[in-house]
Design a protein that fits this description.
With 199 residues, this protein is mainly alpha-helical. The chain has a domain of 136 residues. Helices cover 64% and strands 4% of the residues. The protein contains 7 helices and 2 strands; from the N terminus they run H-E-E-H-H-H-H-H-H. It has a two-stranded antiparallel ribbon with strand order 1-2. Helix 5 runs parallel beside helix 6 and helix 6 crosses helix 7. The longest helix is centred in the last third of the chain and has 31 residues. The radius of gyration is 22 Å and the shape is elongated.
Length: 199
């Protein structure tokens, strides 16, 4: 990988760290306390949140017809998501150890913390859990497939890839046969090192 690309990737990581720092500062402003992956709001904040909660009956009676009609279609996607989750998890449990690829920790991608928000009713909390599952699963699958691609085919495409996974920037340039043969082993070895970082 070129030094310029390395420098740009490092700048991106730095900006991501700054964003996370700013998000932590904002959470502190909202008096949210995060202890051992549990969230605890101060009583005063919880009471303020509850004032914005829409009661269940009012929420159901105020629902738009399109929401009621499409809800079964939206929630029917849960079953393909679940099957995909099982398939991808089994895939990496079986194959990653055989190839020396560090396993992806599923729990790092599936975050269900919105249930702690006092301003959401039970239906809103279920909706949030569903979206958290779908988006977390997509991120988890992206990570598994990104590691798979780095092992088997770490070559950039000839045209731009939208929102490529984090490993893509380190892939060999399209058409660089010599670079591919030279760097393939090192790129594969990087995947084994990921396990050390997760410990």
């Amino acid at each position: 990988m070129s030094p310029k690309i390395n420098e740009l990737l490092e700048r991106i990581r730095h900006i991501e760290d700054e964003i996370e720092h700013e998000l932590q500062r904002r959470r502190a402003e909202l008096n949210a306390d995060f202890e051992d992956k549990r969230i605890r709001f101060e009583q005063e904040v919880l009471e303020q949140q509850r004032r914005f909660k829409t009661g269940l009956l009012k929420y159901l009676l105020g629902a738009r017809l399109r929401n009621v009609i499409t809800a079964p279609v939206i929630y029917a996607v849960f079953f393909p998501l679940l099957l995909t989750d099982i398939a991808v998890t089994l895939y990496q449990l079986i194959c990653f150890p055989l190839y020396g690829i560090a396993r992806v920790r599923r729990r790092d991608y599936l975050v269900f913390d919105r249930a702690h928000l006092g301003y959401l009713n039970i239906i809103e909390k279920i909706n949030c859990a569903y979206c958290s599952y779908g988006n977390g699963l997509a991120a988890y699958i992206r990570e598994v497939l990104g590691r798979t691609e780095q092992f088997w085919c770490p070559i950039k495409h000839s045209r731009r890839v939208m929102q490529a996974h984090p490993y893509y920037g380190g892939f060999v340039d399209f058409g660089d046969a010599e670079g591919y043969r030279r760097e393939l082993k090192a790129l594969r070895e990087e995947l084994a090192k990921l396990g050390d970082e997760n410990e």
